[in-house]
Write a structure and sequence with these properties.
Tetracycline Repressor, domain 2; 10 helices
Amino acid sequence: MNTYSAIKCGSQFLNKDSLLGTRMDSNTAARRLTRREREAARHRAEILETAEAVFAEYGFEAARMDEIARRAEFSVGTLYRFFESKEQLYEQLLAAKFDHIESIVQAAIAEGVSPLDKIRRMFVARLDLFWAHQSFFQLLVRETTDPLCASRPRWAPYIIERYSRFMEQLRGIFEQGIETGEFKDVGGDALVLSIEGVLRAYFTRLSHQSNGPTRDSNEEEQLLRLFLHGALKDE
């Protein structure tokens, strides 16, 4: 396990084989869906949306399929027609969300014209994603800070691998910035861990606000400024 692997403990159930259903859905979407298939896809999306809120509120262990069914206004039997178990429902929810989040973040990075610009865009994109998907980030905070997380039988090799690749990508951007003189020569790992610490601490604080978080663009700008104050090379 590398430097970054332990951060994604909350996704311990996800593995590559479990994504077969997601891939099959994508292949089906390549042709014109029948009315019944469109209805099934809509029901599946409604279940996933409801499950996200329930998992965020209770955590994986305490969440119940009957509560998800009640809120989604389906029978429990209908849930099991779409998902074999609570584990599979959780797995496919994570898969879909991480696919979406990764695509947005990668697009933001690709638009950057320099290492510093790439880091700025990545930072802003992840803040935007938090506000667009608060219940999912609340779920991640709950699951990755659960003291029982490390004792669970299976970690999420698929998600851990993806997250580790992303951390390596950020390290490469920072190291490129060190070479071009934009960032201080403190090592790419230190800069990656620093910016991840800032973002994770901020998301955790927001997720724990009892009355619901309110976006403060000035505060977000200050967070980025504080990080860059320590990261940018003195002229």
